[in-house]
Specification:
By secondary structure, the chain is an alpha/beta fold. It is built from 11 helices and 15 strands. Strands 1-2-4-3-5-14 form a 6-stranded mixed β-sheet. The protein is elongated and about 85 Å long. It comes from Megasphaera massiliensis.
Length: 378
């Protein structure tokens, strides 16, 4: 069955929802909230969904009280729309999550009306993407397992893009422990934890040269002692360790690096403690067929776009974890020019007329893609 008419209906309904989509974008932009503190945003979105007939629950309330799961309909096709709404410290919506929420809500409502009794619509409120990544926890607890597909559109700059991937990342903190002593004490020399850490840092840089797949290792020393005349008994390094695939990260890089830290500590007669201070963000798998659907949708909406190669990656996202359990596509839609994300300029763009106009385009495209995926079985 050709779903052309249903997609036209969905786009027309997004246009009717323009005041609501703009309201979401404006209200969230004016009241930015940090991850796990998004009580206003979560409440606003839940109220809107409830007003449109959705049933709301929170399957991860114990870990993320500002998360939610809204459902509408009882059709066999299970379609997910991912909403994000956390902001950045001091900058506000410098990643445009106010627009993500507006697009996903608008798309879900439009898709639901067009799909009718053929689908069950799921809207997931996903807090703290910028920090601990609620979608990591949600994926681990099976929240997305029943979906046939999920969509999200992320604001971007200079051009709209489809495709690409993201880095798998697992931030790791290393704390080296030694023994304190006065540097001039002739009898008690102590064990210099900073020496062990610096040795580890040097070996880490050399190790990086041996890696055969694309990766990122960034590291900073956050603690190196308290006074120059005291042998440091504690030294701390924080690292972001990333690879294009979770397999290479988890089965090659991390075991090697952890063993290296243990070896260095033993060589210095020190000890080391390792803690993953943020959860594992898995690499993004954009579904190729859904990418084609987005290309068709953007063409129909007269939105110029570029295509990214499968190995193009700029950062990390917890949407990658969702893409490991169900089909997902996450394009970027242009909301401004000559800037980068996580800046005050991007935050301004996220509140601009162009940003909100593009949110309408993004919502239409998501609804259209959902209908395309639903139509595969008919």
């Amino acid at each position: 069955m050709e779903y052309k008419q249903l997609k036209e209906d969905a786009c027309r309904y997004v246009d009717e929802l323009k005041p609501l989509i703009y309201e979401i974008a404006d209200k969230l932009h004016a009241r930015p909230e940090l991850g796990q503190e998004e009580f206003f945003a979560s409440s606003l979105l839940k109220d809107i969904l409830t007003d449109h007939g959705f049933t709301i629950d929170n399957p991860v309330a114990d870990a993320f009280p500002t998360a939610f799961h809204g459902t509408l309909g009882k059709g066999p096709f299970q379609m997910g729309f991912l909403a994000e709404y956390d902001a950045l410290p001091k900058i506000g919506h410098g990643c445009g999550h106010n627009l993500i929420a507006a697009m996903s809500i608008g798309a879900a409502l439009a898709f639901a009306k067009a799909a009718g009794d053929k689908a069950t619509v799921h809207v997931y409120g996903c807090p703290a993407e910028e920090t601990v990544g609620s979608k990591v926890y949600m994926s681990e607890h099976g929240v997305f397992d029943a979906l046939h597909a999920a969509v999200i559109v992320h604001p971007g700059v200079d051009k709209t893009y489809i495709g690409g991937t993201s880095y798998a990342t697992h931030p790791l903190q290393f704390t080296f422990w030694g023994k304190s002593a006065h540097v001039a004490d002739t009898e008690y020399h102590g064990i210099n934890a900073l020496d062990a850490l610096v040795d580890f840092y040097a070996r880490l840089k050399e190790y990086e040269k041996t890696l055969t797949e694309r990766h990122i290792i960034g590291a900073i020393i956050t603690e190196g002692g308290t006074a120059p005349n005291i042998v440091p008994d504690r030294a701390v390094l924080k690292a972001t360790i990333r690879a294009l695939t979770v397999d290479y990260l988890e089965n090659k890089m991390l075991p090697d690096i952890k063993q290296m830290a243990q070896d260095v500590a033993a060589a210095h007669q020190a000890s080391v403690e390792m803690v993953h201070y943020e959860p594992l963000y898995k690499n993004m798998i954009n579904d190729p067929k859904m990418d084609v659907y987005f290309a068709d949708a953007f063409n129909q909406l007269y939105e110029e776009f570029g295509l990214r190669s499968d190995d193009f990656a700029e950062g990390s996202t917890d949407v990658g974890n969702v893409s490991q359990v169900t089909r997902v596509s996450q394009p970027e839609i242009c909301i401004g020019y000559g800037m980068s994300g996580h800046t005050s300029e991007f935050a301004a763009a996220a509140g601009s007329d162009l940003g909100k106009m593009q949110a309408l385009t993004g919502a239409k495209a998501m609804a259209m893609v959902g209908l395309d995926v639903m139509g595969e079985e008919h």
